[in-house]
């Protein structure tokens, strides 16, 4: 089954704009679950600009579906992951000045550090996914790290249209095959929305999509449960081949 991971960071972004207590991402997780989410995704950024430590702690106690913690390899963030034990950690690169995650991890350039981080997470019983661009050499290096999953970065696909988008889709399909053939689970995310999600959903053996901005944007108008339900319906249509 293709699982929908709902990224609720933007709910926390609104809260942090006023440094108050509302809206609470913990409530958002419950609403997303009611709408059919299979997974709740949060990114604990080093600057704590949206999700804060308290959210991760409460979510790890209260989320009944899968909890996926997106994070950099900063030691204090890894410490929180090892303490709260989410079901899955997705390692992403992080720059302070970026608006959102800009590219995939450079596994080749950071192999030794990633090896010790992955080992620490595994020792704590946490499944590990790496956020990667659809690049053969990076995927090969990730496989050597014995991670369970790779989340393909769909940002480029989402930013393009027409023939350029088709080229991006073919790259994702080829990388997806490489990932699955190597025995890892295939995930994707970034920039996916109600208009562009179906072709990515149909990539062979895709098992998890992480979607945030478009779902939270729609939720402003239709409510979060309904926005999640509508996205989940698209994934079901994609899986049924209609
Ligand atoms: N996957 C990863 C690794 C991300 O960093 C993000 C953004 O936080 C997403 C998925 C979701 O991206 P979007 O908000 O564009 O749907």
Set down the secondary structure blueprint.
Elements: E1 3-7, H1 9-18, H2 25-34, E2 39-43, H3 53-62, E3 66-71, H4 75-84, E4 88-91, H5 111-123, E5 127-132, H6 136-144, E6 149-153, H7 155-159, H8 162-181, E7 185-189, H9 197-201, E8 206-211, H10 213-222, H11 224-240
Parallel strand pairs: 1-2, 1-8, 2-3, 3-4, 4-5, 5-6, 6-7, 7-8
Helix pairs in contact: 2-11, 10-11
The chain binds pyridoxine-5'-phosphate.
Pyridoxine-5'-phosphate is lined by residues 7, 9, 43, 70, 90, 92, 100-101, 131, 151, 189-192, 210-214.
Explain this structure.
The chain is of the alpha/beta class. The chain has one domain (3-240): Aldolase class I (TIM Barrel), CATH 3.20.20.70. Helices cover 49% and strands 17% of the residues. The protein has 11 helices and 8 strands. The chain has an 8-stranded parallel barrel, surrounded by 8 helices. Strand 4, helix 5 and strand 5 form a beta-alpha-beta unit. Helix 2 (25-34) packs across helix 11 (224-240) and helix 10 (213-222) crosses helix 11. The chain is globular. It starts with a strand and ends with a helix. The mean pLDDT is 96. Bound molecules: pyridoxine-5'-phosphate. Pyridoxine-5'-phosphate (PXP) binds at residues 7, 9, 43, 70, 90, 92, 100-101, 131, 151, 189-192, 210-214.
